[in-house]
Structure formats: C-alpha cells, structure tokens
Design brief:
Its EC number is 1.1.1.22. It comes from Kitasatospora viridis. The chain has three domains: 11-217, 3-Layer(aba) Sandwich (Rossmann fold), CATH 3.40.50; 227-316, Orthogonal Bundle (N-(1-d-carboxylethyl)-l-norvaline Dehydrogenase, domain 2), CATH 1.10.1040.10; 323-453, NAD(P)-binding Rossmann-like Domain (Rossmann fold), CATH 3.40.50. It is 45% helix and 13% strand. The protein is built from 20 helices and 14 strands. The strands form three sheets. It has a six-stranded parallel β-sheet with strand order 3-2-1-4-5-6, sandwiched between helices. The protein has a six-stranded parallel β-sheet with strand order 11-10-9-12-13-14. A two-stranded parallel sheet has the order 7-8. β13, α20 (441-446) and β14 (450-453) form a beta-alpha-beta unit. The longest helix has 32 residues, at 219-250. The structure holds nicotinamide-adenine-dinucleotide. Nicotinamide-adenine-dinucleotide binds next to α2 and α6. Nicotinamide-adenine-dinucleotide binds at residues 24-30, 47-50, 53, 101-104, 117, 120-121, 124, 139-140, 169, 171, 173, 281-282.
Length: 472
C-alpha cells in the first residue's frame, strides 16, 4: 500500500476554519464518517488496517452499499480532499483531530465488548503524536471505557494537550450518509474547554446549518446515553413483537394495535412494526454488552428489563418459522421457497446478525429449498450462508415457488405496484409470508395472493376464481 503524502495547509481551509482530520478504522461507521467530513470541507485521511479494504477506498470505491456513499467517496478521493492509508504515521503527524471508529465486537462468550481494537488504536496512535490534538472516540463502548483510555493517553503521551473525548455515533445504516451530515443530535462527553473547542470546530458546518442539537456532557454520561438509546430502540421493537405474540393467541390484529398505540404522542408510530426482530452490527451486540455491564454494576432491574428484550427478540425466529409452516399447510419439507431480502434491513448490504438470513437458514434446516434474492447483499449473504441458493433477480428467486417469504423490506418488493402481479405469474402457489409486516396486503390480495403476517389473521385473495362453475 503506497503511503499517502503529507499535504500543506491550503488557504481555503484556513479561511473557512476547516480542519485536517483522520478517521481511524474504516468500516461502516468510519468510511461514512470520513466521506462526510470531506463533504463538510475538511481535509481527511482514513486509516484502515485491512489492506484490501484500504486499496478499494483509496480508489474511491465503497466496500459496502450505503445510499449516497459511493458518490461521496468518488468525488472526494478524486479531488484529493479524502485519502486513505494503512499507515497510522500518515495520520499522526498530520491531523489536528483523530476520530476513532474501530470495531467493538462482542467477546467470544457473547457478553461484554472486546476492547482490543480501541485500546490498540489508542496505544499505537498516542506515542506518535508530537503536537497537542484531540482524539474523538466514536465507537460504541461500555461505560468506563473512555476513562480507561484517558489513563492510557496520559501514560503514553509525549506532549501535553492530547485530549480524549467520547462522541458516540447514532447513524442508522441505510441512511448513514444523511444521518452523518444532518444528525438530530451530536453527543460529546468531554472534560476540558480545549476539547470542547475542537469538537465544536469540526462539527461547525453541521451546527451552523441548524437542526442539530449539540449535547456536551461527561464521558460516562455519553457512553450510557448511547447504550440506553440502542436498548430503548430494541425494547420498542420487542414490545410490539411481544404484542404480536398475544395477538396470535387471541385472533387480534397487531397492526391495528400498533396503529392505536402509535397515535399516542407519548409512544409514537416509529419502530412499531411487528416482525422477525432487530439485527445488524449494532443493536444485538450493544444490547448484550449493555446487559452484561449493568449486571456487573449490580443494577438488577435494568438487567432483567434488558434480558427480557433479548428473550423476546430471540423468540421471533421460531414465530416466523411457525407462520411459514402454517402458510405452507403444515410442513416445509421439500417446499420451494422464494426468499426476498438478506440484509438485516432495507437500504444496506450489511448481513451481520441478519434476522432474514437466520430465517432462511432455519427454513433450509426444515427441509425447504430456499432460493434467495437481495438487491445489494447477495455477495455478503452468499459468504455468510452458502447452503441456500441465490438468484440475481427477485423474479428468478420466486420462479416455481410454493411459498414466498419476504425477509427484508426492500422497496423493490414492497413499493413496486407491478411486483405482486409479476411475482404471481412466476410462482407455483401465490402464498406470501411477510415476516416484516412490510407490504400493504391489498395489491397482493388483488393479484391473487394469500398474505400471512406475524400477529394478524391470514388474508385470502380477493380475486374471484376464474374457473366457471362445473368447469375444468
Ligand atoms: N455500523 C453502524 O451503523 C454503527 C453505528 C453506530 C455506532 N457504530 C459503532 O462504531 C464502531 C465501528 O462499527 P463498524 O460497523 O464500522 O465496524 P466494522 O467492524 O465494520 O469496522 C471497523 C474497522 O476498523 C478497522 N480497524 C480495526 N483496528 C484498526 C486500527 N488500529 N487502525 C485502522 N483500522 C482498524 C477494521 O479493519 C475494520 O475495517 C463499533 O463500535 C460500532 O458499534 C456502528
């Protein structure tokens, strides 16, 4: 990997009070953050240890799909405002502010976070710094981690004035670029006026545009607020999914229950769609790590609450398998299933902890022949779950199917008004199992489908049987 050359300060940068920043760790968060910082006008270097990823990024290409990201990467690597390197030294002597965006996966025991990436990045970076600067942690960490890292900074710093602050990230995958450029809040835990000045300067273009609240607090509060935000989102999803379970046992319709609840301003409609539960690279791991941490701290009530959220989420897969079995008339053995969607949610190619892929695997294990399509996640899905079949188009995936399962709510399947009729023409039996409660059943019913959704009675097609009485 060729090293990125140092660049002199440009007059434009000084005039606009723009900064030289580094982003250490260029995964989903770091790549998006680096591209967005360049879009704001800063000069940016992204540091990524994975050479293959780094080469791709340096060539201006996105290693994963996120709306708008490929365009930003191409534009800013071409202009030279955004560079990538696998050498930390390229960032250390150059940037005034260093974002830490490395991974915090779960420990192999599935409990707390592994902190070796954040600790490793700080241990490698700090001895290379010879000017005062600010390290801004963005990774999601357990409360107490920033304080531990601050002590490491103190031990290893060669010069005074190296600040460490924690600035957890709230972006949603599928809207990562938009959320980074126009976040609803920027949360920073810090301990000195110098650190505050640096954070205000790097986010100045966002704050000047309005609509973003800057919340400045202490590092522990910032860490807990991030964990609490993800826990609350997970709890909301599990709550409506628990109500879906109640509805299934009573013949009630959970979508009407959700609508009724969502109108109440204290509750709100977002995150109230019943389904197979939350997944992805954040909520499941963050909830597990937070549960582990609050248990360690001895917070009994919080531990029980968070554990229940996880239990409900885990139960959703079995509920979805049972729904598919009912829709198939009892058994999935030998059934051909056209499976739509593999990413953990629409708008991203991310298949980490994807409930859709887990469901595809379970259906395969029940003896079904699963044929899967996804608009953006085919390559990742194939690597993660090679035992099922894959097709390049949705219609190829559903061709000859006895059952179609909608696993991820991509607009390709949900909002295209032609899709229900086209898919009906391709399948053997028009039975839709929508485990995301994503489709409006009406156009599907009109195209001859029966529609099965979690927590509500099955709906039968509205098209009349074209066979004349006594005919055929
Ligand atoms: N993905 C999201 O949407 C999202 C949202 C909010 C917060 N977060 C948090 O952000 C952090 C990163 O998440 P992610 O999804 O981008 O993870 P990721 O695993 O996709 O990316 C981490 C990257 O850091 C690189 N890396 C590790 N150590 C390095 C080092 N010393 N120098 C340079 N590169 C290094 C890895 O090679 C990897 O590419 C996690 O703590 C996550 O919880 C993620």
């Amino acid at each position: 990997m060729r090293r990125a050359a140092h660049r002199p300060r440009t007059p434009t940068r000084e005039k606009l009070d723009l900064m030289r920043v580094s982003v250490i760790g260029c995964g989903h968060l770091g790549t998006t953050h680096a591209a967005a910082m360049a879009e704001l006008g800063h000069e940016v270097i992204g540091i990524e240890l994975d050479q293959e990823k780094c080469l791709l990024l340096a060539a201006g290409q996105a290693p994963f799909f996120e709306p708008g990201l490929a365009e930003l990467l191409a534009r800013h690597t071409a202009s030279g405002r955004l560079r990538f390197s696998d050498q930390l030294t390229d960032a250390a002597g150059w940037a005034e502010l260093h974002f830490l965006a490395v991974g915090t996966p779960l420990d192999p025991d599935g409990q707390g976070y592994q902190t070796d990436q954040v600790v490793g990045a700080v241990r490698s970076l700090v001895p290379l710094l010879h000017e005062p600067c600010t390290i801004v942690g963005k990774s999601t960490v357990a409360v107490g981690t920033a304080e531990r890292l601050r002590e490491i900074v103190e031990q290893l710093a060669n010069v005074p004035g190296i600040e460490l602050v924690w600035n957890p990230e709230f972006l949603r995958e599928g809207r990562a670029v938009e959320d980074t450029l126009r976040p609803d809040r920027i949360l920073v835990g810090l301990g000195s006026p110098e650190a505050r000045k640096a954070v205000e300067a790097v986010y100045a273009p966002i704050l000047a545009a309005g609509g973003t609240e800057l919340i400045v607090t202490d590092p522990a509060t910032a860490e807990v607020a991030k964990s609490a935000a993800n826990a609350y989102l997970a709890a909301k999803i599990s709550f409506i999914n628990a109500m879906a379970e109640v509805c299934e046992l009573t013949g009630a319709d959970v979508t009407e229950v959700a609508r009724t609840l969502g109108i109440d301003q204290r509750i709100g409609p977002l995150g109230m769609r019943p389904g197979i539960g939350y997944g992805g690279g954040c909520l499941p791991k963050d909830l597990s790590a937070f549960t582990h941490r609050v248990r360690e701290l001895g917070a009994g009530g919080a531990t029980e609450l968070l554990a229940a959220v996880d239990t409900v989420n885990r139960g959703r897969l079995e509920a979805a398998v049972a729904l598919a079995e009912r829709a198939a008339g009892g058994s999935l053995e030998g059934a051909r299933i056209g499976f739509l969607g593999a990413s953990f949610k629409a708008g991203t190619s991310d298949v980490r902890d994807s409930p859709a892929l887990r469901l595809a695997d379970r259906l395969h294990l029940r003896g079904a022949v699963v044929v899967l399509h996804d608009p953006q996640a085919l390559a990742g899905a194939h690597r993660a779950l090679p035992v099922v079949q894959y097709r390049e188009t949705a219609l190829e995936a559903v061709a000859g199917a006895d059952l179609v399962v909608l696993g991820t709510d991509w607009p390709d399947y949900v909002t295209d008004p032609q899709f229900p009729a086209r898919a009906a023409g391709a399948v053997r039996l028009p039975i839709l199992v929508d485990v995301r409660t994503a489709v409006d059943p009406l156009p599907w019913l009109a195209a001859g489908w029966s529609v099965w959704q979690l927590g509500r009675p099955a709906q039968q097609p509205t098209v009349l049987d074209p066979t004349p009485p006594g005919g055929a």
